[in-house]
Design goal:
- By secondary structure, the chain is mostly beta strands.
- The chain has a single domain (5-183), classed as Jelly Rolls (Sandwich), CATH 2.60.120.10.
- The protein has helices at residues 26-31, 60-66, 173-183, and strands spanning 5-7, 9-10, 15-16, 57-59, 71-76, 81-87, 102-109, 111-117, 125-130, 134-137, 142-147, 153-160, 169-170.
- A six-stranded antiparallel beta sheet has the order 10-7-12-6-5-13. A three-stranded antiparallel beta sheet has the order 9-8-11, with no helix packed on it.
- The longest helix is centred in the C-terminal third of the chain and has 11 residues, at 173-183.
């Protein structure tokens, strides 16, 4: 798996990709070059926590594939949030809509069926996707991501604006549903 680092800087009007955590090894920061063939860095110590809103740099692949939870908030800023997700084989994110939140998802490992539509009972868009696919969900669009593979689906999601409270960890889909119900 090729190593790639992404930088997240949250701005009200501009999304710049990126996430960062304090690396134990300063060489990781020197070797991580966005947009070029960087030399492989040592495997980072993955500490799953919410690093926002501090400036952060980390290997998004390693964090995403190391996440065992249904949802883990990795970085929560003022206008942007990154969450990691692990969906069991045959599982799904669940049908949802975010009226005021655009969403970017990237599949790091696994196979999915993406469904979207203007109403929860009219999902007119269906597309298969796999590793390295990007899924873009406009605000107000009903959507669901279904794991069609035989192993946990690993993906990360970027919300703008923030959708979950800072430090959110939902170990299971049921935990996520209970938390959403408690907010409404």
């Amino acid at each position: 798996m090729k190593s790639r680092s992404i930088l997240i800087f949250a701005c009200a009007s501009l999304l710049g990709w990126g996430v960062a955590a304090c690396h134990k090894n300063p060489q990781d920061n020197q070797n991580a070059q966005v947009g070029s063939a960087a030399q492989p860095a040592e495997k980072a110590n993955v500490a799953l926590q919410d690093y926002g809103p501090a400036p952060t740099v980390l290997n998004i692949d390693e964090y995403t594939t190391s996440n065992p939870n249904f949802r883990t908030a990795l970085w929560t800023g003022t206008y942007l949030q990154v969450t990691l997700m692990s969906i069991p084989a045959g599982g799904e994110v669940g049908l949802e809509v975010h009226p005021d939140t655009d969403q970017f998802l990237r599949v790091e490992d696994g196979h999915v069926k993406v469904l979207m539509g203007d109403a929860k009972d009219s999902l007119t868009f269906a597309q298969a996707a796999g590793k390295d696919s990007a899924i873009l969900v406009p605000a107000g669009k009903w959507h669901n991501i279904i794991n069609t593979g035989d192993k946990p689906l690993k993906l990360y999601s970027i919300y703008a604006p923030v959708h979950h409270p800072h430090g959110t960890i939902h170990k299971t889909h049921e935990d996520a549903e209970a938390a959403e119900a408690a907010q409404h």
